[in-house]
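Researcher: Going back to the complex we discussed earlier. I've cleaned up the inputs and rechecked each line, so this should be the final set. Can you rerun the prediction on the complete assembly and write out the structure?
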Amino acid sequence: MIELRDVTLAFGERRLIEHATTRFERGRVTALLGRNGTGKSTLLRAIASLGAVESGEIFIAGSSLTTIGARDLARHLAYVNTERVDVDTLSAHDLVAIGRSPYTDWLGRLTAEDENVVCDAMRVAGVEHLAARAVSTLSDGECQRVMIARALAQDAEVLLLDEPTSFLDLPNRYELCRLLGELAHRDNKCIIFSTHELDIALSLADSVALVDTPNLIHLPTQQMIASGNIERLFDSDFVRFDAKIGAIRLK
Amino acid sequence: MQRRLHIILFVVLSLALLLVSVADLMLGTTLIPLDDIWRVLAGESANLNYQKIILDLRLPKIVVALLAGAALAVSGLEMQTLFRNPLAGPYVLGINSGASLGVALFTLSAPVMGLVSGSLFMRIGLTGMAWIGSALILLMVMALSRKIKSVSTILIIGMMLGSAISAVVGVLQYMGSDESLKAFVVWTMGSLSTVTRGDIWVFAPAIILGLVLSVSVIKPLNMLLLGESYARTMGLHVTRSRLIIFLSTTLLAGSVTAFCGPIGFIGLAMPHLARLTFRTADHRVLLPATMLWGALSMVLCALLSDLVAHSSVVLPVNTITALLGVPIIIFVVIRNRNRQ
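Model: Rerun complete. Updated structure for the full complex:
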């Protein structure tokens, strides 16, 4: 579904990931791991065609990002970051409805079918009850789930999420993980999400992509745990990765 | 439910607009009865004096007020959405000042170039310079807003740009001749009645084009509510949309400033009034609502300035727009502060 061919990413002058070549398939959840500032967000932005590609090529559903039209891409790929949308009079429903933009006419009018998709998206993301609320009154967690509903309304096979768990409390984190798993395994979507939470990543994801500057290592989760890469990257004087239980422990 | 509220509000606003416009036709230094107005507008023979007052003075002024109000308000709405800044507007961001600089350069140097004031060429030149001036400032603010994400920093920079330009304009005034200086000072006070019937043929098409452009970016404006990254990943050609919004705001704010002088507060306050009354962020509703509020507020200003006018003295529009707009803006600022 997503293919990286010899991709090098740069943030300003600084090179982050060099010569990465890998594929991300449908029906799988991939966790993107790495230390702070190694380029997790930049990689997700690059796949979403938001820049940073210095050389190499990225393909979505067989077409290169350099040739695919913006509207076509939006039908294949939806993106969610941690940026908060804080518009006074915008209701959650209307925000999710803007997600239908790749399908609507020049005025953005919703057809009955669009309206159904919007309702479904809100139900799946568990935010139906928030529909009439103004987004500026939502909590960070609620806002995050509304943004995910918006991405679902885009009806795309690829879902990119930049740190989707960061604002959520523990039950909501696992609820989100269950949702991502369901979307990948039941609805056959290709999901990549970045996170700092190793336990969530390893228990949920089918595969793990690890940014080991300047390389990108992408392996099925069990192989990644056995490979020793996680220990090498995350162990410090204070913490140690326990491959048996798949979690970080204090020393 | 919300749809019904919108329809009711649109009807009420339109009626209010009609009422104030008619009142403005009737009232002034000479009171003209309603049936006489009707006769003049219908083209039936009427008092020649009335005919002159209505067709040459009051009607053009009302048309200008309607268009100018709608234009300023819509340009403010576009800027607030584009910059994701509730306090953006043509006046605050220095767009008016940019236009002033263009106008100052032109009016003060026109006598040197041998241009007769009031000629069509003079009008087009003046408008052109105002467009160029406002476009340059808008470009600067847009470039800066890509680097600086802070809402208040952009506003401060806009105000500083405005002050700097005012200073430059001050220097230009010092160097200008007495006659051109007077023309310029009158212009800075802002007036709806300086636009003649001939001027309307330049003014109206420019404003209508600007409004049509703004209607064409309704969907992009909605998408830009979520910020550029989201808009792009939902299939928006951000550069193209920014360009259209840029052209539209320049045409709207630039033309109004060229013809009516720098008019403050309408552009900043009316989009908020539209949001507060219609309780939506959807530009499909917000854009026409903002147009109506802008037009209504401007016609009301025209009416007020007529009512307080004593034969020859006309209250500058700027004074009234400030009195009307400032309370709304303070309310919005306090409301935003309470929320955060």
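Model: Worth noting: The CA atoms of residues 97 and 142 of chain A lie 16 Å apart.
Researcher: Good, that matches what I expected from the previous run.
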